[in-house]
Amino acid sequence: MSSPPVSDEALIARVVVSDDRHAFGELVRRHQSAVRATLRKLVAGNTALADDLAQETFLLAYRKLKQFRQEARFSTWLYRIAYNVFLADARRIKEVSMPEDMDPDEFSQGDVRTGTSTSRQAALSIDLERAMSVLSDAERAAIVQCYHNDLSHEEAAIVLGCLVGTLKTHILRAKQKLKARLSAWAPG
Amino acid sequence: MLNSETDGDDWLEQALRGEGHEHRSVYIADDGFTAAVVARLPRPVTVPAWRRAAVVLLWLCAGVAALLIVPGAFDQAFRATLGMIVGQHWGLADVAGLLMLFAAMTWGAVVYAMRTD
User: How many independent structural domains does chain A possess?
Assistant: First the structure.
């Protein structure tokens, strides 16, 4: 019979108290997928850049782990660091480039609206992904935290370091832009 | 969790929720990512073996220096403390209490020193 998994809190305590690198490795293993996936969304699909930023995120988390007060979930705290790392990198390179095969103006909407439900869903998903690239960093981050990471408005505001009202404004503007870009998908 | 912000964009809300659900259900394989992060962690700070002896020696030097510089102050403090203790009327119960206190402190110190975390 296998023993119950050690909680994040217990692993964090081991890292802080005795610099247990195995414990930190376990924390990385648990959260790497979510952090890397979030960063991939934020950098509009640039996998290599996202993974570099994810590594920076975890290294920064290791250095700052003593400052983690456990007022929020560990994953929320990691998302916040990841977002700050992303912002710092975005400021450094001024703009986040899109993968070469992605053109935000090329949408597939018209031709697949009449297809099967699955192909329609897949096409909408692709168009949504492309439309996300026209959003500002803050708007995209708000959508990623609230819809992709399923955080509440309050948690997402903590991650993005802004007020809940500001976050709601970002979401509203993002949806308006997405709606305009994906207007052909609108029913009626 | 999230409410539709404006009327008539349910399809967008549904699409975003569907995209979010798909995002969360995808697991990115580790493929050496964790090992790469752990390899880049800063080296642990190792304290040299002679550090403890050096610290003890420094404290000893500081103590001797203090004794040499202000011998009168220590002598006065020692005599005052001794006089305070000797001046008291000590009963058997007091001595027993003092011994028990001393034993408890010693035992506590030993248990603390032998703890294994």
Answer: 1
